[in-house]
Amino acid sequence: MTSESSVLADTSERSRNPLRANARVLTAALVGTSVEFYDFYLYVTAAALVFGPLFFPAASREAQLLSAYLSFGLAFVARPLGAIAFGHFGDRVGRKATLVASLLLMGGSTMAIAFLPTYQMIGWVAPLLLCILRFGQGFGLGGEWGGAALLAVENAPRGWTARFGAAPQLGSPIGLVAANGLFVLLGLALTDTQFLSWGWRIPFVSSAALVGIGLWIRLRISETAAFSAARNHGPPPMVPIGSLLSHHKRPLLIGVMGSVSAFAIFYLCTAFALSYATGSLGLRREAVLGAQMFAYLAFAIGIVTAAVRADATSPAAVIRMGGLATVVVGLGFGTGLHFGTVTTITATIALALFTMGFVYGPLSAWLSAQFPVEVRYTGSSVAFALGGIIGGALTPYAAQIMTTHYGVQTVGLLMSVAGLCTFLGARLGRAD
Which of 69, 126, 211, 264 is most open to solvent, judged by the fewest CB atoms within 10 Å of its CB? Predict the structure, then answer.
């Protein structure tokens, strides 16, 4: 068979079976992001369950929680810095090498948390070290999501952009289930004393094996076709962030707006709901974690449903619909938590996370379309990271304060405002 015939045959195969033809790329996007989010969400769960008394001693449980949430929010400060740094190399060197580096940084920071001494052991140095490693997690994740999204989207055949872009998005519920599932198993196997003493460290140690799997897969992929084509047409910008801020400020702002509600929904349903249910309501930790795991299934269904719909219509149309749905769901979110049973909490967060799937599932395809290839890694990553600061960094903190002063019924207003912001972003941005 001639070279030309081989190319034609390969093209025909890709058009007939796009998922099988791109299985390695999609697996790299899915597995790597699953590992990254597993690492990131370990901290979320531990912050709600154990980091307060272990690293932030204070006179009251509320003060401990607020301190733990502030350390949790530190990663969101690091994320835009990581987005700029990794985006620089992602737009100049390539997607593949940058994704390997981000995974190593994220995994190394997570494993190091497992070996940290507590406040009772070394005093104020313990929370300082915890915050440094949390910063490392956020810095690594700042470069992870944008690269994984582009790896999938830039390899997507025509008409499959949103469905390919859903691969890294599905890494989120997979990482969540893995992180929460391990905490549930430990809670069932260990006493509270054992869990608080050493059991919480096990999930952080286990990330080493997952990082190894992610690295093995990512080292076997090729560069994206879109990036290679752009390099053939000319050199990349010397400073991608400079080019982004000089020539693409409007799509950057729109991208930030469109990303906000996904973070607000998620962290209200995970970090805040977990601490409120186990602390204020006194529900068992394993029961609440199990409820969240069930809700993550609804999250995954929402992502897939939204991605299929987005390819049939447009990512922007689906995100607009999801933004409006978020406004409505937010109005009843706090009341659902207020009823205080495992059943009502499960139903509340499952509905919210299913709705999140409609603003999060098509986000890779929509956000990458806002920027040209030469600054796409930087633009997508920075917009996503800044959206995380607005929608996620202070949301559990603000929700805790609102609950203390006005009651838990009010916290859903944070979700509704974020949903309106996302709707406006998707309305103002490029449609495809």
Answer: 126
- CB count in 10 Å sphere of residue 245: 15
For residue 392, give Cα distances in angstroms to 10, 147, 265, 397.
43, 20, 8, 10
pLDDT digits over 317-370, tens only?
999 999 999 999 999 999 998 887 889 999 999 999 999 999 999 999 999 999
Residues 296, 312 contacting (CB under 8 angstroms): no
What is the domain partition of the chain in residue ranges?
A: 22-225+238-428
Task: Please count the helices (runs of H) and the strands (runs of E) in the chain.
Answer: 22, 0
Distance CA 303, CA 319 (A): 11
**37-67 confidence digits (pLDDT tens):** 787 777 777 777 777 778 777 656 666 666 6
CATH number 2.60.120.10 is the correct assignment for the domain at 22-225+238-428: no
Asked if residue 347 lies in contact with residue 355, where contact means CB atoms within 8 angstroms, the answer is no
Cβ 348 vs Cβ 105: under 8 Å: no
CA-to-CA distance for 33 and 6, rounded, in angstroms? 33
pLDDT at 424: 96
Please state, rounded to an integer, the average pLDDT across all residues of the chain.
84
Model confidence band, residue 6 (pLDDT cutoffs 50, 70, 90):
very low
* DSSP for 58-126, written as a single string: -SSHHHHHHHHHHHHHHHHHHHHHHHHHHHHHHHHT-HHHHHHHHHHHHHHHHHHHTT---HHHHTTHH
CA distance 215 to 226: 23
**274 close to 45: Cβ distance less than 8 angstroms:** yes
Task: Check if the beta carbon of residue 402 is closer than 8 Å to that of residue 415.
Answer: no
